[in-house]
Specification:
- It comes from Methanococcus maripaludis (Methanococcus deltae).
- This is Putative Zn finger protein.
- This protein is mainly β.
- It has one domain.
- Helices cover 7% and strands 55% of the residues.
- It has 1 helix and 8 strands.
- Strands 1-2-3-4-8-7-6-5 form an 8-stranded antiparallel sheet, covered by helices on one side.
- Strand 7 and strand 8 form a beta hairpin.
């Protein structure tokens, strides 16, 4: 699996400003960093399994303090190798990445928040 980098403009969990959030996803961890305040949320891999699409739909429907971010990236699947959309769901509790072709899903659990981004 290659490393992914995405951007999503939304209200920052930390500073509350609307700004680009840089999302980096790696095989064993992920992070979300605000370009305005540099606050960084770190996530670690908890599980990788085949899941049906209902599991992601259920998570999207859960009401939380902060909005869920629903994203997509066209890329080769780490399991089946099929090039196509990977659904990405980012919540305050975790990050889900799911291949629409084979259902391979990685769940990254929220680990730690660095409010100043390592400064």
């Amino acid at each position: 699996m290659e490393n992914w980098k995405l951007s999503h403009t939304t209200k920052c969990y930390s500073c509350g400003k609307v700004a680009d959030q840089i999302i980096e996803i790696y095989p064993n961890q992920a992070l979300v960093k605000c370009i305005n305040c540099n606050a960084t949320r770190y996530y670690v891999i908890k599980k990788a399994d085949i899941e049906d699409e209902n599991s992601l739909k259920e998570e999207v429907g859960v009401k939380r303090k902060y909005d869920n971010w629903v994203l997509q990236k066209d890329i080769d699947c780490a399991r089946c190798g099929h090039f196509g959309p990977q659904d990405i769901l980012i919540t305050e509790n975790g990050i889900y990445v799911r291949c629409r072709h084979c259902g391979f899903t990685r769940y990254y659990r929220y680990h730690i928040h660095d409010p100043v981004g390592g400064k």
